[in-house]
Amino acid sequence: MIEGLDGAGKRTLADGLTAELSRRGRSVARVAFPRYDADVHAELVAEALRGGHGDLGDSVHGMAVLYALDRRGAADALRVDLETHDVVLLDRYVASNAAYGAARLHQDAQGDFVAWTEELEIKRFALPRPDLQLLLQVPTEVAAGRAAHRERTEAERQRDNFESDASLQERCGEVYAQLAERNWWSPWRVVSGVGQVDFAELADVVMAA
Predict the structure, then answer these.
(1) Whole-angstrom Cα distance, residue 94 to residue 122?
(2) Are 78 and 128 in contact (CB under 8 A)?
(3) What are the two backbone dihedrals, phi and then psi, of residue 31, each rounded to the nearest 5 degrees?
(4) Cα separation of 197 and 17, whole Å?
């Protein structure tokens, strides 16, 4: 599972890791959340993030429930992937909900929102537990620059309200770091998103998890 700020380079990391694992003969399944093209809850998220559905986007818990329902809808397919592939790589998972919601409410990783997320997604929905959570860590300004570049160069990619909020991204990065330090839910590994990633070393870490 790969976590990080918008623009941190999660997709690039997933591509490089997939290539290295495939080179070793390992089968890899990949899922990116939210599943905008596959789940109605994710569709509603995308619309709310761009101002649709009245004040839905302003509701931290309302948006978090939609994100969670998207993952719940994917849970059975994830379990199949886990049984049939050597590695399942997820671009965002439960920790994204915890980090962004806590940041929106100006809470830290020990606050009520992270506990609420754990109660909903981990205990009530019983989502599959990741063996390892990778935090792709970059300075906020670097992530923002990459997100802006992506918006300019990818016609279909427009930054949403969360991605455009620099202070939110800063707070979210702090919560992510706290979650990683606590090894929240399962073990974490922090990966620097600045400079070259040693994919061979990272693949070793993933396979050992």
Answers:
(1) 8
(2) yes
(3) -140, 135
(4) 9
Is the sign of the CA dihedral 176, 181, 185, 191 positive or negative?
positive
Rounded CA separation 174/31 (Å): 25
Copy the structure tokens of residue 156. 């279909």
Instruction: Write the class of the CATH domain 2-208.
Output: alpha beta
What confidence tens digit (pLDDT) does each residue in 45-94 have? 999 988 899 999 999 999 999 999 999 999 999 999 999 999 999 999 99
Q: Residues 28-37: pLDDT tens digits?
A: 999 999 999 9
Alpha carbon distance 17, 205 (integer Å)? 11
Sheet with 188-192, side-by-side order of all strands:
28-32, 87-91, 2-3, 133-137, 188-192
The pLDDT tens digits for 137-150 are 998 888 777 666 56
Please state, in angstroms and rounded to a whole number, the distance separating the CA atoms of residues 17 and 43: 28
- pLDDT score of 126: 98
Q: What are the residue boundaries of the structural domains of the chain, listed by start?
A: 2-208
